[in-house]
Amino acid sequence: MSVSTVTALSLHLLVFIFCAGAGAGAGAPDFPSTSDEESQIERFQQYLRIRTAHPYPNYAGAVSFLSAQARSIGLETLTLEFTPGKPLLLLSWYGSDLSLPSLLLNSHVDSVPAEPSHWIHPPFSAHRDPHGRIYARGAQDDKSIAIQYLEALRHLKARGFSPLRSIHVSLVPDEEIGGADGHAKFVASEQFRRLNIGFVLDEGQASPTDELRVFYADRLPFSLIVNAVGSPGHGSKMYDGSAVENLMECAEAVARFRDSQFDLVKAGIMAGFEVISVNTVYMKAGTPTPTVSYFRRTCFLSFTFITLSLWGAQRSHIHGQEQ
Ligand SMILES: [Zn+2]
């Protein structure tokens, strides 16, 4: 947090200015857009029309578009491909003092799938309604962020700004499916080490207004799989220690904890991102065949088992202290 904070925050301010201007002026009658803002919005829509949703994201199309945008701004481009078919685009604006730690602006190119039948406008049309609302998969998560970076840098270039520190933009694949073939390989690479990153900005929370919040922490995901085992028995008898009973004890404990966290949010004591969220993802149940049963003591006693899968997220402080 100590290095290049000022640079980062001043850039973020420009990002905010761009976003506020574009948002307010996006066709709303009270705030007519300038021609510059219209151009920015048009570039945003072009990016949205490139189908980068899983399971078949068009990374090549997105990298081609973003590279052309970067070159039009005057940024250096480098395409890294740690995994075939999954390019990572790195844009660079070198500062006047290369010995200083640099700033990295990160955004992911991919998005979660879209089911057109559930959309009021086709999810890759980037339809803009008379109120300035743009409908597209990936608009908030995360394509608006990449466009804000690029337009902020375009604005700085046009003003004749010359950075002291180098500014890099990483446009990464596969974030929505874990990032193992994207950012994980990037941060482990020699190319990343050479960038000498001192400060990173990444996506935050979508805002329904023109005000953007700057976060200094992130949520750490975790997953937990609970396998409950228990004795089976004939349907005509009652017996203790069934797998369902054992699983329910666990599920109820999780539910109580979830309620305790959610109650804090509902009471307004804590924000949604400040508590630990836990959600049951799926349950698998049934009596397995003898070939996959658990055996205890003798091979005649098999156990049913049920799997409860949970997914949660916990707040983690990146920099260890609040500022
Ligand atoms: Zn995202």
Automatic annotation (TrEMBL):
The record's section on PROSITE patterns has:
ARGE_DAPE_CPG2_2 (PS00759)
Q: Which SUPFAM superfamilies match?
A: Zn-dependent exopeptidases (SSF53187)
Signal peptide boundaries: 1-27
Specify the protein name.
N-acyl-aliphatic-L-amino acid amidohydrolase
Its subcellular locations are:
Cytoplasm
UniProt superkingdom: Eukaryota
Q: What is its EC number?
A: 3.5.1.14
Swiss-Prot/TrEMBL keywords: Hydrolase, Signal
